[in-house]
Design goal:
homodimer, 227 residues, alpha+beta, Arc Repressor Mutant, subunit A, SH3 type barrels, 2 domains, 6-stranded antiparallel sheet, globular, disordered N terminus, binds manganese (II) ion, DNA-binding
Chain lengths: 227, 227
DNA sequence: TAAATAAGTTAGGCATGACTAACAAATTAA
DNA sequence: TTAATTTGTTAGTCATGCCTAACTTATTTA
């Protein structure tokens, strides 16, 4: 008898769409997420998202009115959180046990998160002794799908003179993550905003006796807690 | 710059077909493997295999003449061995680190073997200190794709009075593997063939002071080394 | 060797998930 | 409040990988 528990019957694509919607709606706390925004986020055409949203609505994972904003049902959210949990646990495993650096894990985790087996992920969790943060500082949901979603305050949103601590980073860009490590920044680094330049939005920061000037784009990808 | 080394550009299906062909041709050492045989092995229709074989021929992984037997090119073999290596390393990981039993690993490994990342599998190999056998007794190819293919002598092929050692088992059936453990058999068990019954092919065996009668079908799935 | 059977191929169809191009609705700016 | 722009939808196409039904070729067996 095949264990139906492992099969939620969602395709890789359906899972990816639900996860993307969750990250836009809940993790980024957006007021409105529209069809085109989702398309851009997933790097597919609006026609594709329109199509998939139709399908996810018929399966009761998504709710929306024609021309209206997209929303997730509880079931849709639950699937997304499960995916996020898997993604972050795998990233943690790759970093802590398989010598991956933090800029190498995301791509592989994007694949691993679609492996269907409850036992696999719960045992992996146990094997690592239930980690709570992934290599990029993101909170890992527990087996019940519970986790705290920290407000995403970007380094770029701070004023001159502010002092903060690096909490997490946007993990999707390899070159960005390499850059972060290269200049000596890491999770928990204490950063002082020394100067915000009107002209181009670049920011002069100081940390561990290092001074660096970073672009606005860089600072947009660094999430901090003000202290 | 994306690491193209991780992408051999094969779909999951293409990989599965090449692996299946390899297992029929090389591991089972068949004289001839035909289209329908491959279809039956993969549980798809002959039309499907016919189609895929066409595609694999155009990509130079398979060679065959119309109505002729199927063969793999070196490149085709190499892809298949890489897949087998991944499959068996993952099975080993699941058993040795994540509390899976040997009857639970195959299904999940069927998914994990398609994850594309050279680093992942080589690091997993290193993490486990380069295991040479998977939980079912099968030899794990090394990073260069080298491994010894043991001749598959089935328990059912032995004569009365023969004494042998259990080397490996067919891993694809959950109920079979559970049955093996249940009666107390395991890898390395020393088995004596006490009686082969003409009537139904059933075999009376003895091991660790246990006596059992097993069916021909059961004995077909047990691979042994005569001692 | 001719008929029966087995093995392999082809044609046509379906589901999934992409795409482009054309169009419609909603929002924003003039 | 109309026009421009943005956003969303629809229609039609394509690739992949599966299917069934019908057909062709090869192999058996009588
Ligand atoms: Mn990630
Ligand atoms: Mn992450
Ligand atoms: Mn297996
Ligand atoms: Mn195995």
């Amino acid at each position: 008898m095949t264990n139906k528990l492992n099969l939620n019957n969602l395709t890789k694509s359906e899972e990816d769409y639900l996860k993307a919607l969750f990250q836009l709606l809940i993790e980024d706390n957006s007021v409105k997420v529209g069809n085109n925004q989702l398309a851009e986020y997933l790097k597919v055409s609006p026609a594709s998202t329109n199509n998939m949203i139709k399908k996810l609505k018929s399966k009761n994972y998504v709710v929306s009115e024609k021309y209206g904003k997209l929303e997730l049902t509880e079931e849709g959210k639950s699937i997304a959180v499960r995916l996020i949990r898997k993604h972050r646990l795998w990233e943690t495993f790759l970093c802590n046990y398989l010598n991956f650096s933090w800029d190498e894990v995301h791509e592989v985790a994007e694949q691993l998160e679609h492996i269907k087996s409850y036992k696999l992920i719960d045992e992996l969790d146990r094997f690592m002794d239930f980690p709570t943060k992934d290599p990029h500082g993101e909170v890992i949901p527990n087996a019940d799908g519970e986790y705290s979603i920290l407000p995403k305050i970007t380094l770029s949103s701070l004023e001159e003179g502010a002092v903060c601590q690096l909490i997490s980073v946007n993990d999707a860009s390899v070159t960005f993550l390499k850059y972060v490590s290269e200049i000596g920044l890491a999770l928990s680094s204490e950063i002082k905003v020394q100067e915000v330049r009107e002209f181009d939005g670049s920011i002069k920061i100081q940390f561990n006796n290092i001074q660096e000037t970073v672009t606005r784009k860089f600072a947009d990808n660094v999430f901090v807690k003000v202290i």
